[in-house]
Amino acid sequence: QLEEEKDEDSFDMEVAVTNPEKIGKEYFFLTIFELMNRTFSVWRRFSDFLGLYEKLSVKHSLNGCIIPPPPEKSVVGMTKVKVGKDDSSSADFVERRRAALERYLQRVVCHPSLLQDPDVREFLERDELPRAVGTHTLSGAGFLKMINRASDAVSKMTIKISDSDAWFDNKLQEVESEELQLRKLHAVVDSLVNHRKELCGNTAVFAKSMAMLGNSEDNTALSRALSQLAEVEDKMETLHQEQAASDFFILAELLADYIRLLGAVRGCFEQRMKTWQRWQEAQSTLQKKREVEAKLLWANKPDKLQQAKEEITEWEGKVTQYERDFDRISVTVRKEFLRFEKQKSKDFKSQIVKYLESLLQSQQRHVKFWEAFLPEAKAIA
Amino acid sequence: KLCKQYFPVDILSKILSINVDLQTDATLQVDISDALSERDKVKFTVHTKSTLPNFKQNEFSVVRQHEEFIWLHDSFVENEEYAGYIIPPAPPRPDFDASREKLQKLGEGEGSMTKEEFTKMKQELEAEYLAIFKKTVAMHEVFLCRVAAHPVLRKDMNFHVFLEYNQDLSVRGKNKREKMEDFFKNVVKSADGVLVAGVKDVDDFFEHEKTFLLEYHNRVKDASSKSDRMIRSHKNAADDINRIASTLYTLGTQDSTDVCKFFLKVSELFEKTRKIEARVAADEDLKLADLLKYYLRESQAAKDLLYRRGRALVDYENANKALDKARAKNKDVLQAETSQQVCCQKFEKISESAKQELIDFKTRRVAAFRKNLVELAELELKHAKGNLQLLQSCVGVLKGDT
């Protein structure tokens, strides 16, 4: 078994995607990138990010690289932005997109091979990018659909290549099982976000109702206490709102990202299978050509024999080439997978701790609010 | 399937903290010592301790069902002698429908979930059922305690029969004709209510009370329904956290890597925090929602008292007019005088006791709110601190590991 690769000299590049600004009908984001004391900042559109993904996947997915999928397009969200709706939900949407683009870009620059890619450098450094075309069709979701269809076809052939392949088999199964659990988890977190938002709304309404009751109450001290209770509930509403935001931006988005990433990982494994298939098919073609040659020898047809010999040489070359390709992609996929696992572990730990810390802060304020209210309640006489 | 469940309910009155400052003197103490939940009814064991001479024994118990409580309540309402009192509101009907439905759905869906999930959910639904059950018993007990504490109502004949007669009282459910009569009675009452409410009272105290109660009742109603909705959202969120804990557990058991161990720790944390969240929702229900619901019913009973007084006033005024007419025509004067006297006495009697009742109502209300709001704040604090401690220790451990 291959041991975990030692940490390559990763510079821990940092990128930021900030300052969403609406110019015309679309938003531009300020993309800031720091390298060796030089800061590059350029304005990029959402479609620029998609264009980058397209270029990278065309070049690298065949090598077995795990290409980070870009954020999904959202028709509803985009329409609101274009129509110029300036409410909190479209502000939420822009923030969601900004954060997702930042995470996407962060993953790209953390990838040692991708960082070398000239398209990535151009994306980070060039002042103005030509508008990417054809990104309507090839969003992250579209690419994933292609992967899924391909993987259906491949998995229909049960393949047991060799002993070392057990590693790939196991890992693929783990990935599929994990993806399933993450989808489940994401659905529940989504439900939590919705219920918290509901709680938020219901608390606000209740607070108003309590305030009204306090106004009606003719015992002065009780009336005052009820108003104070209404204020506490108002503060609770704020807490719930912030909590729902944490639930969403920290937890739900993390899960959504990794569901897409696991899809990309599956894509790599499938790519390796395709490479193997191609090698196998070449071998069987070579075999057929050799049979043809043998028959021709027997039938004594010298001119056709020459052609047959040339074809054999051609296919021998291909077989060698494809075997080399397969070995190479196997190495890459293995390396990529281990790097991915490390990154995933880091990501989950840091994000979940961040989420727990947000819960912690919320509870601290909880305590403060109720501590302030208790003497008011005791003062009722 | 719900089989007979037998729950000892000795600390019930602590659950529903409505009966504040109710004198429990030796002459008459009432409580619900046991309760039995059958398929579609609840049987309450009403236990009485009394030194009053009209009871055959000093201590005795009978079994009563909800309909019998309603019969007793209605008998108070229909009794003209008690027109000047706030009749303690009848306890709400035991309603396990929602809980039963959930248990049934769970049973149907047993095949589609893991054994652990099923057991977990079953335990929770059973706990929910138990909570509803405890509440209904407490509500029935509070009603009886309020009656026993009332200086006049505690002497009521029907009440004594209710407490002592150890056979079924045979108060069958109202038949169709009676239900129709009830319906019309209520229509007349509300029309009356509007009429009476419109008449400005000479007495400042009652005028103020009328204005106050009308507004207060509506606002309590609003607050009650809004509090219910808020608490339900809270429960839903706690349920979600429960499922998150389960899924994280599954993820954590797939392997023994670093990140899997991490998931297991977080899963354990969420298991604990969601228990606290569920308790917060339950305590809010008990201290806030139930308080509001109770005062919704009590304020209605107080309004009913005002309507009765209002009607007595109208009767009195009509009797006055009739007397003037009789004097003018010099016909049936004695009859009119007698009738006017009766109305006057009735009105004054009601006014006198109503005033005291309304003052008592205020005192009770303030005390109950104080008790519950203080307890609510203390519980919220306790739970928030509990949550905080759990989170702090978990985050400390997780950060130390990485």
The two chains with the largest interface, and their residue counts, are: A-B, 56 and 57 residues
Beta-strand percent range of chain B? 5-15%
Termini Cα gap of chain A: 76 Å
The helix/strand order of chain B is EHEEEHHHHHHHH
What is the 3D shape of chain A?
A: elongated
Assembly type of the chains comes to heterodimer
Helices and strands, with pairings:
The complex is a heterodimer of chains A (381) and B (402).
Chain A: E1 14-23, E2 26-35, E3 38-45, H1 46-60, H2 75-83, H3 88-110, H4 112-116, H5 118-125, H6 140-155, H7 165-216, H8 220-299, H9 302-378
Antiparallel strand pairs in A: 1-2, 2-3
Chain B: E1 5-8, H1 12-15, E2 28-37, E3 42-50, E4 59-64, H2 66-78, H3 97-108, H4 115-149, H5 157-164, H6 176-198, H7 204-252, H8 258-329, H9 333-401
Antiparallel strand pairs in B: 1-2, 2-3, 3-4
Helix pairs in contact in B: 3-4, 6-8, 7-8, 8-9
Summarize the structure.
Chain A is mainly alpha-helical and 381 residues long.
What this model shows, in words?
The complex is a heterodimer of chains A (381) and B (402). Chain A is mainly α and 381 residues long. Chain A contains 9 helices and 3 strands. Chain A has helices spanning 46-60, 75-83, 88-110, 112-116, 118-125, 140-155, 165-216, 220-299, 302-378; strands at 14-23, 26-35, 38-45. Chain A has a 3-stranded antiparallel sheet with strand order 1-2-3. In chain A, strand 1 (14-23) and strand 2 (26-35) form a beta hairpin. In chain A, helix 6 crosses helix 8 and helix 8 packs antiparallel against helix 9. Residues 1-10 of chain A have low confidence and may be disordered. With 402 residues, chain B is an alpha+beta fold. A 4-stranded antiparallel sheet of chain B has the order 1-2-3-4. In chain B, strand 3 and strand 4 (59-64) form a beta hairpin. The longest helix of chain B is centred in the last third of the chain and has 72 residues, at 258-329. Chains A and B meet through helix 7, helix 8 and helix 9 of A and helix 7, helix 8 and helix 9 of B. Chain B: Belongs to the sorting nexin family. Chain B: InterPro entries: AH/BAR_dom_sf, PX_dom, PX_dom_sf, PX_SNX6, SNX5/SNX6/SNX32, Vps5_C. Chain B: Involved in several stages of intracellular trafficking.
